[in-house]
Amino acid sequence: MGIFQLFSKDKQETLDKGLAKTKSNVFAKLSRAVAGKSKVDDEVLDNLEEVLVTSDVGIDTTLRIIDRIEKRVARDKYINTAELNAILKEEIAALLAENNKETEADFEAALTKKPYVIMVVGVNGVGKTTTIGKLAYQFKKAGKKVYLGAADTFRAAAVEQLVIWGERVGVPVVKQQMGSDPASVAFDTLTSATSNDADVVIIDTAGRLHNKVNLMNELTKIKNVMQKVVPDAPHEVLLVLDGSTGQNAFEQAKQFTKATHVTALAITKLDGTAKGGVVIGISDQFHIPVRYIGLGEKMEDLQLFDREQFVETLFEQQ
After folding, report:
1. Who has the most CB within 10 Å: 1, 129, 154, 223?
2. Binding of GTP: at which residues (predicted)?
């Protein structure tokens, strides 16, 4: 069973529910932006700019979207406000496509590496451990043998939480004493995983941002030690961001991308927020594929990010 069939169960319904707050927020603002207007003029564009910025798309990305729409208005001369929704949808989808060139086939191919090693990074409180648990569940359901490594050894709660997830999902968790060297935990995890013919290994890491140099050194050390067991590990460095924090998620992405080479993003907690626009901005600004989005508490509520479906759902007329 391919990983993609698995992630798509009840996908549209979860996406509709998960983006409901963002959607109603964006639509309420959009309808105000075009109220009483029949065509897209400078005032409508100014209003649209404000809608996007206040929907947490971010200033730089907003300006890029406005620029694209201005070019279309200039080219097509008369564009009425009724068409604006469709144009917004097209331009945002095109923007996301430029930054997310990875296809499902690319990801499927990457998963043939054995074991496929994912190193998960992100500050505490963003849903990092929960995301790892949900990923382990999805991979296991797809018939993969999964191992988890509790390398966030600075917080007892992080290790305990991972152990609970391991028990819930039914996958082994490798851990050591509190305060142990995180690289040593990663080494043990990969050693156990390879000797037991595991398909996927997910390593949790400490989420402290107080000192970028320390963070960089620690993550580099974990990578180097893992490579003694699996030479091309990690195959994926997944940064988990809390979508409900809006612009703060941008700041975290900036810090982590400076500290280590992030290859994919998971944006969580989108169901409880009207700040879903942050997905568009982060994808555009950091040129890193958004791999997963979190849309609720249930195991199935972590979905593979489908940019076209996301934009379609966000701008679908209510």
Report:
1. 129
2. 122-129, 204-208, 268-271
The answer on whether 205 is annotated among ligand-binding residues is: yes
Q: Is 262 annotated as a binding residue?
A: no
CB 279 within 8 A of CB 64: no
DSSP state of 77: S
Residue 23 is assigned to a ligand binding site: no
Pull the structure tokens for residue 10. 């009840």
* Residue-wise pLDDT tens digits, 70-120: 998 888 876 777 788 888 888 888 888 887 666 667 777 778 889 999 999
What is the residue whose two structure tokens read 């007892």?
156
Binding residue per annotation — 126?
Answer: yes
22 has binding-site annotation: no
Q: What is the pLDDT of residues 192-235, one digit of tens each?
A: 999 999 999 999 998 775 566 788 888 999 999 999 999 999 99
**268 labelled binding-site residue:** yes
Helix (H) or strand (E) holding 290: strand 290-294
| 3-state percent breakdown (helix, strand, coil) of the chain, nearest 5 | 55, 15, 30
Q: The dihedral of CA 253, 258, 260, 261: what is its sign?
A: positive
For residue 3, the model assigns a pLDDT of 53
81 is in an annotated binding site: no
- Give the separation between CA 183 and CA 27, rounded to whole angstroms: 47
Q: Which of 229, 108, 213, 214 is nearest to 174 (CA)?
A: 229
Q: Are 108 and 3 in contact (CB under 8 A)?
A: yes
The residues near 134 (Cβ < 8 Å, ≥ 6 apart) are 294, 299, 301, 302
Residue 204 known to bind ligand: yes
Query: Is 47 annotated in some ligand binding site?
Result: no
CA distance 270 to 190: 32
Could you give the C-alpha distances from 139 to 6, 94, 154, in angstroms and in order? Answer: 9, 30, 27
The pair phi, psi for residue 125, each rounded to 5°, is 95, 0
Is 143 labelled as part of a ligand binding site?
A: no
